[in-house]
Amino acid sequence: GQQLNQSPQSMFIQEGEDVSMNCTSSSIFNTWLWYKQDPGEGPVLLIALYKAGELTSNGRLTAQFGITRKDSFLNISASIPSDVGIYFCAGQLYTDKLIFGTGTRLQVFP
Amino acid sequence: DTAVSQTPKYLVTQMGNDKSIKCEQNLGHDTMYWYKQDSKKFLKIMFSYNNKELIINETVPNRFSPKSPDKAHLNLHINSLELGDSAVYFCASSQEGLGPPNTEAFFGQGTRLTVV
What we know:
Chain A is mainly β.
């Protein structure tokens, strides 16, 4: 089945650093979502984007819906230890099923 | 109160056995899903039900049979378990299916199935 490519695959950063990750697709979507999964838990929605070019923030997180509708970006500013986890993008076209990305594993060192 | 709850959290069983995973949501949502997360953490949808009716049925072996007795419950029954079925299975729910502005899908904690 279709999968979205996320990069980087993993990141090891120091507390306080900013983080950037992206997600690309071969086809367009009209909804982009970003989820975070903590170890042993299910994914939790961080940010939802519904319009090409849209830039949305949630605390230290900022996500953008790419203008081509084939990509999306997530930035985390001033990372803290609890940011550790796997970040997934997910795309959707109208009311079709959500397609998830391959995930970016984030490790934050104090 | 847990919004989407799955039981059991861990399930270890032998090849060839039949097992069930239960899911309940107390959010009043109309749509429920089963996702499979493999060892590489790839998340793939398996099934989607809306008001007890099957909406999405991905290419899943027919050994997997979802059952929705009411819109708050979606159980997953797996027959003749195989080694390759080992994965984490997530139940999720959303209001009226996915699509703005109700796109958020709430996930359960997952059931880690290990087939030995």
